[in-house]
Amino acid sequence: MPARTPYAGTERKLVLAFDVGTTYSGISYTILDPGREPKINPVTRFPGRANAGGDAKVPTVIYYAEDGTPRAIGAETEGEGIEALADDSGWVKAEWFKLHLRPRTQTTSSVGEDIPPLPAGKSAVDVLADFLVYMKQCARTYIEETHPVDGANFWRSGKEEYILSHPNAWEGAQQTLIRRAAVQAGLISDTPADHARIAFITEGEASLNFCIDRGLMNDSIRHGHGVTIVDAGGGTIDISTYAKRPSGTDEFEEIAAAQSYFKGSVFVTRAAARYLDEYLLGTRFHGDVPFMTEKFDKATKLSFRDPNDPQFIKFGNVSDRDPSRNIRAGRLKLEGSIIANFFESSIQHTVDAVLSQVSLATRPVTSVFLVGGFAASDYFFSELEKRLRPRGLDICRPDPHLNKAVPDGSIAGYLRPSVQTRVSRFTYGVRCARSCNIFDNEHIRRMSQSVRTLGGNRVIPGAFSDILLKNTQVTEIQEFRKSYREQASSREGLNRQNQTPITCYRGNIACPQFYDQDPGNFHNVFSVHADLSNLADNSEEHTGPDGAYYEVEYDIIILFGLTEFKAQYAWTEEGVERRSPAEVIFDTEIEYRD
């Protein structure tokens, strides 16, 4: 494991990483002491767990009472007889709730059919907030007990920092909802200063940090070949591809746009549930399907290895039998080929996604690292290996503690950032009017839609002005900017509280010019807000065909290289560039509502 640089700060600091997974969650933390090499520590004791000090993961599950009060969370839901207690008490189970925060796109539109509904009166933010309360309580208790001399002191200042991980495909809207849950949970207050105590990281990048921190890179990666990280979790399969930069240090760059697919292990379980529901329909065992599904999820799924070997799901007692349905002595027999079919969609999607990443990568890729809870499935791993190795890809599971990759990697990336550049997944820009060009066929087709500006020029509305193109490699400090012009018949008519919607284009046209070229793939994802009153008050007066008008020119500047987007407005005033800070506000109310 590479040595870490001693902490150069002057004050002690506590940093925690919360990995809220679809099915299981984990916590890692580091205590930063000036002059000392930081260590990454997992939280391994949770209230309600019998084997204290064991597993570093807890179920992402909450049982709610009828009045909406959480009654059992995380490790507390593992207790013997919890299902019977919940049934007798009228508790409602909330699970897989993280997936309710997913982006709503054409590719994820059918996912909702497989996700259990939220408890009545609870939003996904509410449930996530309740779970974050639990995670903070667990972390606090563990740290105070593990560091008895000064563990309690870390919490008195209320300045601990948090790193929250999320799937690769999640963007600003999901980050906004997660931060809202963090505020509701009391991790931070709802102020700009406290917002800075929350940092986000994608699960793919956290997994890369984990592999680097554990010294798991092979010779081909050290010499510049790419590595594809497959973080196979409960809900999503996150796929990212990186390569070492030529600088000779442990700095990496993303060499293909990261992707995320809703093909994690829960969808194998859902396939099993659908099969069992149909297979046992009309029999006296149909009511046992939920219990069988749970047994499949907790035991059969991960132990399955060979499609030629039958599998057994024990659900009843010796008197339970139905030879016509392969049920004997309370055990249901399923052929291995049937179990393999439950896995097939997840396996093939992962193979296709890896090959797509490799084909798009800007450097040769020779290695695939499989991490995440689903990676513990021997069958999943062996099938990926069987299908990818003939394509020249070496696939390995680099560490026995695969489900710790994200929380540990989140801390590792905080201590030593490894990814210096990232690749844009989509094209971003704004709606505008474009000056007519009689030599451009797209303009000629829309010439009847053209209008005259106050300055007398003819423009075509409904145009798209790109600020960042898809598959562009960007650094954290790189600015992307475009100039725009606004006109009004009076200074008061100019947009003072400027709110510019930023559009994301998710289609396949390389450089779209107009929205009507592919209307279904343009989505307003956030707005840039700023006070431009001073610019409007100092706007220049011009004379047009209809008299005087006023005009301002400004640039919209966006930094896309950070995990969270940042924006500014810029303009020239007496030969000097001026800038106005801008707020990036994501739409979380329409596109992301269930």
Automatic annotation (TrEMBL):
- Extract the InterPro entries matched here: ATPase_NBD (IPR043129)
Q: Per the database entry, which stretches of residues form a coiled coil?
A: none
Q: Which domain of life is it from?
A: Eukaryota
Q: Which SUPFAM superfamilies match?
A: Actin-like ATPase domain
Q: Which CDD domains match?
A: ASKHA_NBD_HSP70
This chain's protein is named Actin-like ATPase domain-containing protein
